[in-house]
Amino acid sequence: MILRTAPDPCGRTSRLRGSGLAAALVAGSFALAACGTAAAQDSGSQNPAPVAASSPAGAAAAAPAVDDGRTAADEGSPQLRLDSTEEEVHRYRKAYADCLKEHGSGEWAGEKPTPAEKSTYEAARRACADKVPLLPPEMDPKKNPHYADAVRREVKCLQGHGFKVHLIPPQASDPNTISWTYDSLPGDDVDIEKIQNECRVKAYGGGAAITPGPA
């Protein structure tokens, strides 16, 4: 299977199956699992989505809240849990990617999308907003009042494994806008995904299957 690379929110390189905006966004939609932070920047759509940075976050944030903590904009979106399986995550990602393709957003001709391809993608993203899986509340900075503590635990765990990462201080007065990023990538002999998964579970109490990556 041919893999292509694309930059992710942590300044590293994510390997994506396939190509095009659909693959990139599906990868981005789970970027929180990689840095624990992108959701703080883009949590409204639960797609911590730095690969495709735009999201319906504004619409979600502005929508009136419902009793269970979800916003009206979240209604109908699939809800992931800390104990969600790899199969569940894959199924939701694939459904979202398929929806984007059905709305005309797929592969692009060059290395970067053209203005027309970006426009098509934005329209597809809006049409498929209810297919974007919502992260578990524990991994959502807008729903977990202790999210910042979890991010710090995650970073401490990664550093304990020798990863060169550092915290990015919160923005403004919201402590949950804290994030982290890589200073440099571990060597090729390091199983980055395995260690990130272990540290995510240690930080949030679960979420091993909610890894960054495509469907």
UniProtKB/TrEMBL annotation:
Source organism superkingdom: Bacteria
Chain residue ranges for the region called Disordered: 37-87
Keywords: Signal
Feature: compositional bias, Low complexity: 48-66
Signal peptide: 1-33
Protein known as: Lipoprotein
Species of origin: Sphaerisporangium rhizosphaerae
